[in-house]
Amino acid sequence: MDILTLNAISPVVDKVFAGKYTLTKEAKEPVAIILRSFNMHGYELPESVLCVGRAGAGVNNIPIDAYAEKGVVVFNTPGANANAVKELVILALLLCGRKAVDGINWAGTLSGKGAEVEKLVEAGKGKFVGGELFGKKLGVVGLGAIGALTANTAVNLGMQVLGYDPFISVKAAWSLNHHVKQCDD
Description:
Helix content is 34%, strand content 17%. The protein has seven helices and eight strands. The protein is flat, with a radius of gyration of 23 Å.
């Protein structure tokens, strides 16, 4: 049985479905569709499709009501990419706070400078010092899978973390580091 992929999907899925289903970018009669960001509004859904799986948290790119009328089950995978998104958030904090991109770009200008490089680095490196994350405050709005992971990692980096989520689940609350300060607004 074929599962149609409308976006590039992690190779982990191949292992999960091995021997049961065939993942393919082309199928005339797929039993299911897996996608990430592909916009299915206006998409001609094959009649053979029984379910649509979104590899990610949202489903705004899938016409849920229209598919429900056809008996097609739509589901998503909340939290599946939470660690990856958390890492991107922390990366952004580090890159911005430490002026890393500016430093990398500047280092590229030193190519071909030969023996001068050591003196140029010594003279120029101070422009890219930046600030440490340690001791800084971070506000996290939304403490679901991504927010909780981000908040906990920030605490582990020595940041003061303020968290706001009026709809936090008990499970998410239990997963938070006790150093995350709850905010009411």
